[in-house]
Design goal:
2 domains, 56% helix, globular, 6 strands, Rossmann fold, single chain, 196 residues, two-stranded antiparallel ribbon, mainly alpha
Length: 196
């Protein structure tokens, strides 16, 4: 969170790589009536707000606060959402079956064990202070809240040994050069085995 995954993903897109944005898919799913009904039941209405047309919608900010403070609630929400996101990603892969490789951009792949389902994993890292600044300035998340969310994720030291590549998005290293190097390696790998 705040490492710059989405920014890095756009650099891959500029190389013609299809990118599946898992967070965007989750946002889309939160608009689906079945998800609204599930969240309503899960949070006893606390994370639901009325729509102008008389319906209901998920209050994502409230939901985030609730699940980040309740591991059981978080686990139940993930058990509902993650299979739906996986389904959407599989569909995305079928649509882009002729591409040498596709990327899935998301947080929590390590924490949920999802990283094991991929042929390669790219980890984007950044210093904590820089991540907090980005979350405050770009997403309007208060510092304490951002810090709490980051603490619910694995530290980079635990993820780095599991990653195939690490991109340092720290304002010092050339991110574009790192992306190009990984892109070329993935193209070679895809050519050698008929897809990544």
């Amino acid at each position: 969170m705040g490492s710059g995954k989405s920014f890095v993903a756009t650099l891959f897109e500029k190389q013609g790589v299809p990118v599946f944005y898992a967070d965007e898919e989750v946002r889309r799913l939160y608009g689906h009536p079945k998800t609204v009904q599930f969240v309503d039941s899960l949070t006893e209405g606390q994370a639901i707000k009325p729509e102008k047309e008389g319906g209901k919608e998920v209050d994502r900010s409230t939901l985030a606060q609730l699940v980040f403070n309740d591991p059981t609630l978080k686990a139940r929400l993930e058990a509902f959402i993650h299979p739906l996101v996986r389904e959407a990603f599989e569909s995305f892969c079928r649509v882009h079956a002729t591409a040498p490789y596709v990327l899935s951009e998301a947080a929590l792949y390590f924490e949920t064990g999802s990283w094991k389902e991929f042929d390669a994993v790219i980890l984007v890292t950044a210093p904590l202070e820089l991540r907090l600044q980005r979350l405050e300035q770009k997403r309007g998340i208060p510092r304490e809240q951002a810090l709490q969310r980051i603490k619910n994720q694995w530290p980079d030291e635990k993820k780095i040994p599991l990653a195939t590549w690490v991109i340092h998005n720290d304002g010092v290293h050339d991110v574009q050069a790192q992306v190009l190097q990984i892109h070329q390696a993935l193209i070679r790998k895809a050519a050698g085995k008929g897809g990544v």
